[in-house]
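Lay summary. Proteins are chains of building blocks that fold into shapes, and those shapes determine what they do. In this project we predict the shape from the chain. Here is one chain we studied, written as its sequence of building blocks.
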Amino acid sequence: MSLTRVAVDTSKLREGMYVAKLDRPWVETPFVFQGFQINDRNEIEQLQSCCSYVYVDIDRGKLSEAEIGSLLGKEPEMSLPLTRKAGHEAPAKGLLSRIRARVWRRNSSDDAKSSAAGESNPYPITSTVRREAPAAKDAYDHALSRHRAILERARRVGEVSFDKASRAVKPLIESILRNPDAMAWTVFSKKRSARNYSRAVATSVWSVMYGRYLSFGRAELQELAIGGLLLDIGNVGVPDEIVNAEGSITITEFNSLSRHVRFGLQILKSSSRFSDNIFAMVQCHHERADGSGYPGKKAGSHIPVFGRIAGIADCYDAMTTKTAYSPARAAYDSARELNDMRGKEFQSEVVGQFLRMIGMFPTGSVVEFSDGVVGVVLEQNRANPLRPKVMLLRGSDGEPFDQPQILDMQKLPDGNSGNRVVSIEKGHEHGAFGIDPFNYFA
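And here is the predicted shape, written in a compact code that computers can read:
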């Protein structure tokens, strides 16, 4: 069968369909990628909230011959309004109902103004990236030094002080609450130096940022921060030559390395005051929704919510960090890889909201536009991750601008305006083109 796209009323959407085109520009919707396969009911509800009809690519979906036959030749009822439908909250079920309800309210038309601003209560932005950057750096360095002391104590006596862990992450939490973009920039800038970079601190940061985005309470944010910091505390019980091994490892070495989860739980049990949510993060950060993870092969709703957050935060940081096993990927490439895991290794809504939170092009990352212009991302647009605020530094001829220019992509015209649309073509690692983001934020 040749490539065929069929217009389908959103009331008739079903799982397995591949949505190739909408009845409006993609940038006006909450969807990060242009084109995706529907994996669950939540994605159908989101499409119904913003579109009257969509175009389904028959060749790229997972529909039966009978289902394909029923679609061919159908056109949308043009009497349907092409304006955004009124928001509504679908009944949320399962262990993630609390997150889904918050997420749906964030995406509903009633909250459109707050979403467009990228923030809503209870944690409004109270500082600019430039003003917050020094405090974010200090908070990161504070957590790094405290974490090293925590590791040493765990190695010597097999336990962790809750109070010391809490004090280690407190400045991180406060900085993230004031402006998460400043802390994201700090983490990515630190990745350039192995000596000053800690995956534990970074995973703590991503976990808190996710919790902040989902409007978790402060007590829950503290649990996310501590849990992220201690995910791999059990590595103190694994031989250093295996933890620091370069290249591929054998099955025997992997089995030894995977025991860090059990060792981590033993350390927490030998300590005191660590909550069930923190235990869940340490126990389940390598579990996957499709049951392919370890150590318990847990799947779906059997993985606690905090374990799911830990899993995607840890996975994202591993992708964007150079390790003994793999080179660092650009943030945009990592986001696309995570998107490919939707409905497989990670629950679809967990991935979708994580990508909206982190941004396709994190603050401080170097980006290249479709016309060859290069810049550095200054600020996220969480209502539309593909349209951040960017400082333009180099022209399409590769020459630096005499004066950097600020481009707020949120204010660019869409494809229906008749104007040429400029978009970000590619995201690069920090430091690409000789650009040091520190010079523009410090």
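What the prediction tells us: The chain has 17 helices and nine strands.
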